[in-house]
Each structure stands twice: as structure tokens, then as C-alpha cells.
Amino acid sequence: MKKEHSKKKTTRLAIIGIANKYHLRENNMKKIVAFTLLALFTNIACSQDNDNELEDAPKSYIQNLFSECKEYAELEEVASENLNTYLLHCINEELETSFYKRISSLPTEE
């Protein structure tokens, strides 16, 4: 009789242990899924905010960058056939650093 009682107790404890283990796994999975979704939606929200924040740079600022980049090109002795590409790249780097929209063509000299 005692053996049967201890066998039932052991079986009951084993079932409780399995149930607890399953419950813990289920909770962990829920936490992982919730955290993943939170990270995903936060990332999406931030990337949309960054796109909306970029504004066009003032024309005077672009003109100043144009002059500075011309000076850099002279110092680096950039070939005339590569000058426009160099200037556009230089200006856009500075605009991105200042959180302005990039330009697609060089400004005209005034």
C-alpha cells in the first residue's frame, strides 16, 4: 500500500513538474514574441520619423558648401572631368551630416 501511495505521489509530482516546465516555456515564448514585436514596431516608427524630419537646406547654406567643396577640390587637385561628381558628393555628405535632404544637381553659381 505504501509503495502504491509513493508511486502515485511520484507520478503526481512528475506531472506537476512537466506542467510547470510547459508553463515556463509558454511564458518565455510569449515574452520573446512580445519583445520582438515591440522592437520591430519601434524600429519602423523611428525610421518613418527620420524620413519626415529631413528638410531642404537653405540655398545660402548650399552655396557656402559649394564654395567650400570647390576649395577642397583644388587642394586635392581633383581632375576637371571628375569635378562635378566630387562636388555633388562633397555637398551631399555635408547635408547628411547636418540632417538635410540630399541634392540631385549642383547649384548654380551666383
How is this structure best described in words?
This protein is an all-alpha fold and 110 residues long. It has helices spanning 2-53, 59-75, 83-97.
Write a concise synopsis of the structure shown:
The chain has 110 residues and is mainly alpha-helical.
What key phrases describe this protein's structure?
110 residues; mainly alpha; 3 helices; rod-shaped
Task: Furnish the topology, listing elements before pairings.
Elements: H1 2-53, H2 59-75, H3 83-97
Helix pairs in contact: 2-3
Would you tell me the structural class of the helices and strands? mainly alpha
Give the topology string: H per helix, E per strand: HHH
Shape: rod-shaped
Unreliable segments of 5+ consecutive residues:
none
Considering DSSP H and I runs of 4 or more, what fraction of the residues is helical? Answer: over 70%
- Which percent range describes the beta-strand content? under 5%
Let me know the largest β-sheet. none
Count of helical regions: 3
| Alpha-carbon distance between the two ends | 105 Å
Give the beta-strand count.
0
Mean pLDDT: 78
For the CA atoms, what is the radius of gyration?
Answer: 32 Å
